[in-house]
Amino acid sequence: MKRFLQRFLGAAALICLTQAAGAAPAFVGVTVCAKCHEAQAASWKGTAHAKAMESLKPGIKAEEKKKAKLDPAKDYTKDKDCVGCHTTGFGTRSGFALGMKAGGEMALETVGCESCHGAGSDYRDAHGEAEKKLKRASQSTPRKTLVAQGENFDYERACAACHLNYKGSTYKAAKAPFSPFTPGVDAKYKFDYKTAVSSKAMHEHYKLKGVYTGEPVPAVRAELQKNAKELPDE
Description:
Layout: H1 2-22, H2 30-34, H3 38-44, H4 62-67, H5 80-83, H6 113-117, H7 123-137, E1 141-142, H8 144-148, H9 155-163, H10 193-197, E2 212-213, H11 221-226
Parallel strand pairs: 1-2
């Protein structure tokens, strides 16, 4: 009886763990995001984030690689220590994987929307419902509902995970594999979050319509909204 209970409890625990793993939000890709956020996606396509894998190819940015003591002739698109910061969701069950064909509908071989906002399988529908709620009843939706479904609002941390992930960094969560592109190699690699999010490195920011309300609200949002444009279709 004791052995039976041990096996039963072990099996139950395994099922719970499997269900928990299966419940994790999945990456849906840029194309899905662009269905509702066309203007943002269009401006993103012109950024370095949209072409992040290019710099890992042989012969590309050769001088920069030499300064960082990398081999400019090597194909780093196949290097697991490099692709994590040049793709979306690498190392997760639904993210980019080595050998994945580039140019697909999901475009995970880029630093896409979900690199900052989090895997969108769960919160994408919530966005649509919140838009309808605002139009139907002029009611905003609590932003915390998105957090519960996996959306990330700590953009600074998302940026730091790659741009400040080097030895000697002030970023306390920095860990191997470290980036070889440090301010010590070239001053241009010094990263300032507030400057970066307001630059052409990011997609265009547009006026928010009040679809969501409440915390969490990134501290930089107020500054971005000062110069934000109206959406083209409005």
